[in-house]
Each structure stands twice: as structure tokens, then as C-alpha cells.
Amino acid sequence: MTALSENGIIHLPSPYSVPETFKRLESLVSGRGLSILARIDHSGDAAKVGLNMKPAQLLIFGNAKVGTPVMQASPTAALDLPLKVLVWEDADGKVWLSYNSPEYLKQRHNIPGDLLKNISGIRGIAEEAIR
User: Fold this and answer.
1) What DSSP string describes 16-68?
2) Which of 43, 61, 81, 90 is the most exposed place for a label (fewest CB within 10 A)?
3) What CA–CA distance (Å, rounded) separates 104 from 76?
4) What one-character-per-residue DSSP string does 86-102 give?
5) Mean pLDDT per segment of 10 residues, for the chain of length 131 residues?
6) Which domains are seen in the chain, by residue range?
7) Which residue, 69, 57, 53, 66, is CA-closest to 24?
8) pTM of the full predicted structure?
């Protein structure tokens, strides 16, 4: 697995289709007791208004017990929390799973180091979803 990183975003290549990758991601999030707050099918919504877009689905999830202390310490973290993972297909048909790096969020919102663990679980979930 070769992860790419740009502007604080981690991109992991997925060997699965967008729907399959998204299904695996949802299963892992639910299995870890996290709340799924929203599922956004960007490409599906585009199709509803007559626009064509490569497959792209966003999962928003979290746990108030671990996210709230982060937002209490750094209120602007609410711009990026709850956590989000985008599963998308590029112009070449390759599927990617992308998310904000916890270290980037720490720097962006000045999150105290001891609270980084509260948002770092996203890495393991993302990596497992594409295995």
C-alpha cells in the first residue's frame, strides 16, 4: 500500500470499487461502536440533477465522548469534526480512500498533543478498509 499525502490529506489506494470500499468502511466504523452521522453520495446527488460525476461517497462519523474534548480544547476543530472519509474514483478509474491526517488537524487547530489520540483512530480504520 502506498499512501499519498498532500495538503494534510492522506490518500490510500483501494483495490475495491467505490461501493465496496464504502461498505467495508461503514462496517468497520459501526463495528468499533462509532456513530455514523451521515452518508453523502456526491455522485448520486449529481446524477439526480442531470450531472455526471465519477463515483464519490463521503462518510461522516464520530464519538461525542472523544470528539467533544478536542473541540473544547480547540473550538475551531469543529470545522473538521466529526471525522470524514471520502471514497472516490479518479479520472483513470482508480479508487481512493482519503481523509485528513490527524497531525494536520492538530497543527491546523492547535489541538493539544494529549488529545491527538482521540482522532488518530481514523488511520487504522482507513487502512483496514482497503485490506
Assistant:
1) S-HHHHHHHHHHHHHHTTPEEEEEEEHHHHHHHTT-----EEEEEEE-HHHHH
2) 90
3) 13
4) EEEE-TTS-EEEEEE-H
5) 78 98 98 97 97 98 97 98 98 98 97 97 97 96
6) 4-129 (3.30.310.70)
7) 57
8) 0.94
